Amino acid sequence: MSRALYVCVYAAEFPVQTRLRLHPELRSVPVAVLDGKAPQQFVFSMNRQARLAGAEYGMTKLEAEAIPQLGLFQRSPESEAAAHAVLLECAANFSPRIEDASAGTLPETACACALDIAGTERLFGPPETLAHRLREALHAAGFRTSIAVSNNFHAARLKAASLNGIAAIPTGEEASSLAKLPVGALHLEEDDAETFVIWGIRTLGELAALPEVDLVTRMGQRALQYRTLARGELPHTFQPIEPKFALEEFCDFETPVDQADSLLFVAARMIDCLVTRASGRALSLASLTVRMALEGGRVHQRTIRPALPTADRKFLLKLLQLEIAAHPPSAAVVSLTLTAQAGQSGKVQLGLFVPPTPEPSRLDITIARLKAIAGEERVGSPVLEDTHRPGAFRMGGFASGVAAGAAETSQPRMALRRMRPPVPVRVMLRDEKPATFRDRETRFEIDAAYGPWRTSGCWWSEENWEAEEWDVLAHAGSEALACLLVRDCKRDQWRLEAMYD
Amino acid sequence: MLSAATLRKEIEHALERRFPAALSPSPRTRPEMAPTGIAEVDELLDGGLPIGAISEVTGPECSGRTSLALKFLGCRTQEGHVCAWVDVEDAFDPESGAANGVCLKQLLWVRCGEERRGQMKEGKPWRQLDQALRATDLLLQAGGFSAIVLDMGGTAVKYAQRIPLATWFRFRQAAQRAQCSLVVIGQRACAQSSADVVLECKRAHTNADCETVLSGFGYEVRRERARGLRDEEQEDGFPRRSESDSSRTEATVHSSALLSLPKPGPVSDAESIQTKVLPFALAQRSSACEVNAVRRKPPVSTWSARSAWDREKGA
Fold first, then answer.
1. Which CATH number, 3.30.460.10, 3.30.70.270, 3.40.50.2300, 3.30.390.50, labels domain A6-231?
2. What secondary structure does DSSP assign to B34-93, as a single string?
3. Residues in A touching B40 (Cβ below 8 Å)
4. Total domains, chain B
5. pLDDT tens-digit profile of A105-161?
6. CB contact under 8 A, A414 and B121
7. How close is the nearest chain B Cα to the Cα of A309, in Å?
8. What ipTM describes this predicted complex?
């Protein structure tokens, strides 16, 4: 059995990283994250540029605002949770056994996880190679991390927290590798830290060199744990978690956004992240739901469903743009959540003898544009309703590539051109047959009237109808018509329903 | 001094890498035809409506234009092609489409114009026309549609003819690229030289079984223009076109066909109706009595046709 081998990933200043992940243009400027409720907000996390500019932890908001060019953001637990899930998901691409190492032992602003990579050499090569690839993957996801590899879980964790880059601790050299770290890296209790200061113990190397029995005699059993930690010998029972695969990205804005372009700018990065995460599992996005929290507490939610699951970022962004343009939010947007459903990548089997059909992704965009032009409910395929009501239909979705299902008709039939809505007309009867009819402008003389065709239905509901249909040939001057006149028997009203053409 | 032919060859040779045969007109080939499903019209058009070109079906209201276009779409969709119907006046009747064999699942229907039809007569239909033209443009650019019908059948001529010629020219180019048959239904031809085929429809007679049953109409279809039907024209006595005369690629011919359409019978779209549909004749005869839960069918159209040109020749 191979020895245990751990890789520890450490992301310092995680609240700031969460912010910068979706705003990479801010990476080169000082940024700090405030925690607490107004007016007691204080600086909770910051990047290196902010530290160099003079920002300090615990500064009040007023003090922080005095620092020129310092960007201040409010802490967002939702964003951090979403980013944490993304980090774990990236790590899960390298090992299924992951332990969340953030809890308890690390500063509150850091995020860490450890991977059990024993037995992955044949997949990813030596541990150093895996560490490099893991760091690159996390970098692509927007995280700046340091990584340490060791046979001891705690040694890897301590080393990762103390460096900036990648370190691999050779087997048996854990103690020497940790020797230069300050004692504070162990997160000692306050009394113990004070005791070590009095003793003059400043590094883990000095702590590891203390005699075990004398140390335990003076400080108790917890000192033994400190010493074993400092020597990189503390055993650990790995507690793997199973990261939930949820394609969700969250971003809240400092000031409400009312420009669609600004919204799409952020959404583009979020879509990038979603597509990358889905692609990591050889999946595509089958649907994308955008949830916008608006000023005033309302929520605006839209869902786009491509004809085929896709991983094309530009295509998804275009669909989202068209959807937002067609259904703009009623107020400025405070926060944006993108949730995607994963699906197997769409495959279209083409054939030499199959008629060409519109490309699914292009057709989606075309239909979205058509809907923007004509209206949401006015583009699609007509579906005849299962009713006897004349002219009943509904609009269904249009999807290309459906096999032809219509039976062949040998004889062409006359077509009707419907008047939507029907035009009310006044009809004069002669021998119980229509003789003339008049719409708002013209009076038509009826040359021949065929009918009546009586129809009724839905007597059990309020939508019941009872009508008399007449096929009418009429003329007004040189204009000749062949039309369908209908008398609503319930209301005793005549209307021009359709023209024969 | 160099002759024109030598000069042309030299220029072509110099531009050969970027523009092959820059100054030589490309050989005009006869376009592929798609049958309309009406034998008489197909015979008139020597196979059907051209693919990758604009065809105009014109005529006054109630002249059979919509029936012809629907039958054409019926044929295309039954072959598995995807089609679109851009409806300026929102007048398309899905039941008539299904009765003519259109597979409705294969049809994308764009309903322009949310205003009332009555208002359109009073107001100006610019918004509807603008929507329809933009929609047609999008569909042509998207590709993959074998036939697109731009239905301007109810639009007044004075509005339809205000559509810029550049639009029709662009549509023609796009239809050619996408190998799409663009059928324009209108009261008059408005695409002018961009249209390869112009048909003019007219109601000829009415078929009635008795005083109460209208069984159909007869229509006359007249071919106003058809590009590419050269052989037939020459046989018919038109002046033989010189091979070097590339400017006369278009021949205007006038021939017609008589068509008669029966009233639509049972809707045959498989997914649509699963209700009790009486046979058409029975349903018509029983119209005077109380018929509950019987779906009314649009009249059937029969297109019995004999070329008027042939008739004249025979006479």
1. 3.30.70.270
2. E--S-HHHHHHTTSSEETTSEEEEE-STTSSHHHHHHHHHHHHHHTT--EEEEESSS---
3. none
4. 1
5. 567 788 889 999 988 888 888 999 999 999 999 998 889 999 999 999 999 999 998
6. no
7. 19
8. 0.73
